[in-house]
Write a structure and sequence with these properties.
The complex is a heterodimer of chains A (110) and B (113). Chain A is an all-beta fold and 110 residues long. Helix content of chain A is 0%, strand content 57%. In chain A, strands 2, 4, 5, 9, 10 and 11 form a six-stranded mixed β-sheet that branches. Chain A has a five-stranded antiparallel β-sheet with strand order 1-3-8-7-6, with no helix packed on it. By secondary structure, chain B is mainly β. Chain B has no helices and eleven strands. In chain B, β4 and β5 form a beta hairpin. Classes of the chains: A mainly beta (110), B mainly beta (113).
């Protein structure tokens, strides 16, 4: 059974800092990994999708990497801003629908 | 291009009642999945539909059911509501569930009193 873990559960950083969020999964037989952002009480916004054959994806200040063999992914956020404050979720898909981690709650302090 | 639309956004129901939630996927997407999100359990998979057929079902009681129409719109129904059913219900739309990018709606916040 696929399990996804995100560390840390919460993170507080000063504005401008670069940061890394971690995601690990137990079954490496995945189709892809997706990073989402969720603001309080809202739905999920897709940030990046990494196919299982890819090593990384970039979008603006975001860079996500995937090491399928070790079951790990990282989301790198450069030059963080207060508007980046949200919960970040990773999810993997395989023979089952998306399996989510519990998320990392990020606070960027101005 | 319109995103995923969920209605209603908020619902308050009484224990024992039933409720129907609706999800309209992105145009051209035939896969719709439903998730329940609670503070304690996080996001849990309910069911997935593709071209009007249920392809997967999560570990939820039979009170939770769903369907998909020929235009890919989907509904989920919860009967005999319990206090523990209070949650944010999220719908995801994709071209091919699990293999392509999933896009989520804003969710329906259900409160059972």
């Amino acid at each position: 059974k696929q399990e996804v873990t995100q560390i840390p559960a919460a993170l507080s950083v000063p504005e401008g800092e670069n940061l890394v969020l971690n995601c690990s999964f137990t079954d490496s037989a995945i189709y892809n990994l997706q990073w989402f952002r969720q603001d309080p009480g809202k739905g999920l916004t897709s940030l990046l999708l990494i196919q299982s054959s890819q090593r990384e994806q970039t979008s603006g200040r975001l860079n996500a990497s995937l090491d399928k063999s070790s079951g790990r992914s990282t989301l790198y956020i450069a030059a963080s801003q207060p508007g980046d404050s949200a919960t970040y979720l990773c999810a993997v898909s395989g023979n089952t629908p998306l399996v989510f981690g519990k998320g990392t709650r990020l606070s960027v302090i101005a | 291009k319109a995103g995923v639309t969920q209605t209603p956004r908020y619902l308050i129901k009484t224990r024992g009642q039933q409720v129907t939630l609706s999800c309209s996927p992105i145009s051209g997407h035939r896969s719709v999945s439903w998730y329940q999100q609670t503070p304690g359990q996080g996001l849990q998979f309910l069911f997935e539909y593709f071209s009007e057929t249920q392809r997967n079902k999560g570990n939820f009681p039979g009170r939770f059911s769903g369907r998909q129409f020929s235009n890919s719109r989907s509904e989920m129904n919860v009967s005999t509501l319990e206090l523990g059913d209070s949650a944010l219900y999220l719908c995801a739309s994709s071209l091919e569930s699990g293999r392509t990018e999933a896009f989520f709606g804003q969710g329906t916040r259900l409160t059972v009193v």
